[in-house]
Amino acid sequence: MPTVFFSMKPCYVCGAQGRCPDVGGPGSYHGPRDLDTRQSAAQRSAIYMWVQRCTSCGYCAVDISQGDPSVKAAVKGEAYRRQISDTSNSETANSFLCRALLLEQMGDLVEAGWACVYAAWVSDDSGFDDSGALCRARAVQFFQRARSESMPFAPSRGEEAVLLVDLMRRARQAEDALKLCEVEHSADYPERIKKILTYEMDLLEDGDSTVHTEAEAMED
Known about the structure:
Layout: E1 5-10, E2 17-22, E3 52-53, E4 60-61, H1 71-75, H2 78-84, H3 91-105, H4 109-126, H5 129-148, H6 157-170, H7 174-185, H8 191-205, H9 214-219
C-alpha cells in the first residue's frame, strides 16, 4: 500500500476545510489482473482514497480543492444528490459514481467511465454484486460514447475491445457482449487479444458472468 499523507484542503465548491488523504489516484501496476484490469487486493488497497469527498457539500474529486466551474451547479443538482445518498451502493462507490457525473458534465467521458469501473471494484469488494453489475453497465455506456468520439480509453484498440466485452459480460449483458466479441475477434489484433476474446466467448456461451483473470484466459 502506498504511503498516505493527510492535509487540510478547502473544498472547491463550498470552501469548507477538510482533512483529506493524498495518494494521487490509481497508479501503474504490474502483475496478475482480472479481465477488466482489476488488480490484486494488495495493489488496489488504497482505492478508498482515490476519490475525496467534501463532508460539507458532498463534492467528489481526486482533489476537492480543484475543479471546473460547471461542477458547482451540478453538485447541487437532483441527479447528484440522489446518487450521493443511494443506499444500494457503498459510500465509496457512490463517491466514484458522483465523480463520474461531474466528469460527464465536463465532457471527460473516458475518466467518467473509469470512475464507474472503480465503483464496480469497490462494490465487488464490499459484497454489492448487483451494484457492481450496474456500475459496469454505466462504464460501458461511457466507453462506447468515448469510442464513437475517438477518445481512447485503453492502451490499444484491442485492449479497449477486451475491456468492453468483459464489462458487458460482468454486467450480465451477455447477448450484446457476444455480438461485440464476435465482431472484435475478426479484427486484426495481436494473438494475445484474440486468445482473450476467444476465452470471453467461451465464458459467454457458458452463461458465466463471474470474475476471471488474464492468466486464466492465456492458460485456457
